[in-house]
Known about the structure:
Blueprint: H1 3-16, E1 26-27, E2 37-40, E3 43-46, H2 70-79, H3 84-99, H4 115-123, H5 140-150, E4 153-160, E5 182-188, E6 205-211, E7 216-218, H6 233-236, E8 241-249
Antiparallel strand pairs: 1-2, 2-3, 4-8, 5-6, 5-8, 6-7
Residues 22-23, 25, 39, 42, 65, 67-69 line the site of zinc ion.
Amino acid sequence: MTSENTSDNTQEQALNKTDVSGCTAEFPFFGAKYPDARCIDGYLHDMDKCDENGNLYLMDESYPCPFCNREEFIQQQKDNEEDLEKVSEWINYINSKYNLQKVYQRLVDAGNGDCMKCAIATLLNLKYEEVPHFLEFENPNSGMINFMLDKGFDFECCLYNYPNSEYSTIEKLKDFKGINGLFYASVFSPKYYKEENGIEGHQVTHAVVINKNFEIVFDPNREYKNIKEYPASDKLGYNGIKNIYLFTPKVV
Ligand SMILES: [Zn+2]
């Protein structure tokens, strides 16, 4: 057996393993416009470099994964004297475009929907089962904040959108980095919004994931996939975003 065969077998085993410590992210990295890199055990492999059986070749150099092997990845970028600001922008872009494991709602209900659970699961790349149904807690918001704390994120503050008011803080979003550039936010529920109550009155809210530009990059409700505008976005601006919970990675 040649050494190349051995490495192919190792690669194949790695690909078939279900308990890989890597995140199995796939995205463009080795020069292609399509996802040509895949994370296996924390390192990126070029999916275009494989034999006729689809087995990947071992890479000559090691490429740490920017998501599950972040420290090593950043160190390599530093060693290569890359512009770290640009690198972090690239990570954010790749994350929202290719890496988000979207977790969709299984309960759509005015009083007991699971949009909050699904937005947090998506934000942290967790599975549906790994995140509590916060609405079952006595105080859902503090339940969410405690859960985030457990996962290594401090709750900074909540930003509010009050049109034309000095109490509006939503603009401060630009000072924060979020989680891979993404944030947990609320909009008015497209399904339950009551025009007659107005933007100041009682409304059912709905959890989504947004980026720094106030773009809604993920809505956990599949029915809203092609939604053009969220309720009252003409009055609220910011694509109808009402508030944003700011979480930052805990400093150890
Ligand atoms: Zn990874």
